[in-house]
Amino acid sequence: MPGRWGRGWTAAAVALPVVASALVYAPLLGSYFFADDLFNFTRIADRGCARFALEPMAGHVLVARNLLMCLHFGLFGLDAQGYFAVVLATHLLNVCLLFRVLRLLTGRRLAASIGALLWGTSPLHAEPLGWYAVYGHVLSATALLGALALVLPPRPFGDRHPSAAVAAASGLLLLLGATCFGTGLAIAVTAPLAVMLIAPAARRGGARAALLGTSLATPLLYFGLRWLARWIGDSSWQNDLALSMAAEHLDAVPVILVGLLRQALLGIVAGPWAPLAGAAGPWSWGLPAAAALALAAAVVRADAAARRAIVATLLLALAVYGVIALGRSWGGPDATATVQRYHYAGSAVLTLCLATAVVALARRRWTAWIVAGLALVAVDAWGLYRHPVWIRPRAAVRQTVDRQLARVAAAAQAAPPGATVYLENQPLPTPVAGVFARHLLPGTAALALVATGSDRWQGRELRFWDVDPPTRRAFRPPSSRWLSRMLVTPGVDTEASRTACQLRSARQAMAFVRRLLRCERQAAAGAPDLAACQAAAQAVYDRTVVGCGTCFDPKRLGQRLRAQVDGFRGVVRYMAGPDAPRLRVRCSAAALAASGSLIDDLFACHRTSILRDRRLDDLACGQQATEAYRARLDARPERCGAFAGVIGPIVELQVGIVFADVLCGSLGPPVAGAAAGPAPP
Q1: Residue pLDDT, tens place only, 13-59
Q2: DSSP assignment, residue 159?
Q3: Which one of 61, 147, 283, 397 has the largest count of C-beta atoms within 10 Å of its C-beta?
Q4: pTM of the complete model
Q5: How many Å apart are CA 606 and CA 167, to the nearest integer?
Q6: Which residues have CB under 8 Å from 418's CB, separation 6+?
Q7: What is residue 669's three-state secondary structure?
Q8: Residue 56: which H helix or E strand, with range?
Q9: What backbone torsions phi and psi does residue 465 show, to the nearest 5 degrees?
């Protein structure tokens, strides 16, 4: 392509927007995953790449994006920096491709460099680049710009037309983009028509057949993939709901389309100053209106080649934003227009349109337009210095994931090799899971699966007891390879099902307390072997209790319980008195007997609150169990209710000690322990 600057100036013109874009979006490397990302990784690990590739999502067909996501997942795992390095590299590639297409359309290196610089550094891209799940939108822009760079002849276009092979290659790129994001569908249908409008020579021969074939093949590809997903059982009701909601709000499409175009023009022209213009201020309408007037003037004053390029790129932009307005017609114009992830590909096409229009208007006053363009670049650079592009680091998500995986790792390391580790499947908080409910993104089990790729961690099998039936039903074989094994039912009776280690240990500690109280009852009845009875109870406890992690010390708990029961003995003797009548002796024996039932009631209540609400409601449990304990003593003919006021709280304290130790001192938050070894019979 002829030019008076030479290759060195061309390289500098390309390097300027690429380096500037890299500096502006370098914080991408510190970002992290969110919601859809973790959901997609879970599907990949649980269902496999072949099945995941065909899964539609909210009306999108994402085969190409899903395959690339599988590749990245296999390379990087949960290392977010690797993913976002690829995203940043793709954005810089798009900046280069945009420069190439701008140069083909305008014939001006400087105009192409300024246009690529303004687009590449625009804060509009913060969300689509900073959220890996939206990487498909970035790829759809890559497919469009790559196809245009491949098939478009240089300005003034003339009679030079692309070969059939080149047109077919560009069509293949567009079809790949159609399976990356919803905008790719609109691009694949309209971009071939735009190419034929820009370059009339492309309407002849094999190039025309390849371009028109791409437009016609796109809807067939879309509905064919939708049918295939439904045939293999991967079409969810969310996809049908997305299409039906769009069809019910067609009247809102024009208003949303205008809002999207206004926001895109504002983001391209004002750049980092766009948020300061306000949602409804004069600048928010004035700048887009001025840009629209410039487009209209360019269409009138431009030569035929430039006019065709302006009209073609404008129609392409309307198609891209039109499919977004259709898909989000139920969301409201303001809410949709300001969402940054909808502007990546559309803003690139609008940049092509605006740059072509500016060059057409600047034919006779090129120097003045150069000065104006450089001034705009300087203003944007100052704005980026004052208001840097903010990429969400999502530190809270990273901390939550690291904390959950550290809990799993600690439980696995505490278990012997080859053992089965049982943990509670804690749900992920909304800032981490987003809109994905528990049956779609099943908490700790999903994170463990994503981290390991299977149901094993360092040679130990992982099992997560989950109290939510819909969550367990959502993951069944054969579609679920791993989560169908990892999610288990906690059961109603801890002695007859697989339970968490804390509950097993708490039950054994409760049994230890009951044996000690039985020894006290026998001693009160005159049995002389109290020490032997206590030793036998201690031996059973030492043999049966299970240590959970590093924070629970069974030996220390046993010592505390022995000390509490010794204090319990003193209270009973005080209540009975050394010369107490037989009535008090009988009441003390009854209180000891009723204490066993009190322990059982307290344990059952605590267990239910842990399994159902994932917390230890010790206040409510204590009130309910103590009322039942007092009722038992009041029902006796001796009317021994006075003992309940002293002995009942002591028993509650003993149970509280057990759960405080077994649950590592956590009496309010969700249970955070694990069970190592095989489940009890």
Answers
A1: 899 999 999 999 999 999 999 889 999 999 999 988 988 888 888 77
A2: T
A3: 147
A4: 0.71
A5: 70
A6: 459, 460
A7: coil
A8: none
A9: -80, 130
